[in-house]
Design goal:
CATH class: Mainly Beta
Structural class: mainly beta
CATH architecture: Sandwich
Helix content: under 10%
Strand order of the largest sheet: 1-2-7-8-13-10-11
CATH topology: Chondroitinase Ac, Chain A, domain 3
Radius of gyration: 14 Å
């Protein structure tokens, strides 16, 4: 996997891919329509942030490249890559417990706060890792 040079793209399987952690300056793409939703991405080496329909969805610090990002009723799944360890914050259901999996290994159970935010770290750099966050 590599960075998403288009900053944000829709995939044939309905997922989206976004982010370019190699950029020196912040780049953004606004009003990207996919699957009936409007997305916005901001990305560069310090941060990657995704919004859907004006609401927060994903953020990584420092920046990352995400492929195959899929939201389901009970969680999200995606592949992520960066040149450093990253902290990921997701917007999910509020006050709900989620299991976090990295490359199919459960790395923790966490509960979202009252605003539905869930934050966790992924150790990189390495080949892209698969992340899955599933409601318990």
């Amino acid at each position: 996997m590599s960075v998403v040079k288009e900053l944000l793209r829709g995939e044939q399987n309905g997922s989206i891919s976004f982010g370019d952690y190699t950029l020196d300056k912040k780049a953004k793409l606004d009003n990207f329509e996919h699957g009936g939703d409007i997305y916005k991405v901001k990305t560069f080496y310090e941060i990657t942030k995704l919004e859907k329909n004006g609401l927060f969805v994903y953020e990584s610090v420092p920046g990352s490249a995400v492929t195959g990002f899929t939201e389901k009723e009970n969680g999200v799944s995606f592949q992520v890559e960066s040149n450093k360890d990253i902290q990921i914050t997701l917007e999910l259901a509020e006050s709900t417990e989620y299991a976090i999996y990295v490359d199919n290994e459960q790395v923790g159970l966490m509960e979202t706060n009252m605003s539905g935010k869930l934050s966790f770290s992924v150790e990189l750099p390495m080949p892209p890792v698969n992340v899955k966050v599933v409601e318990r």
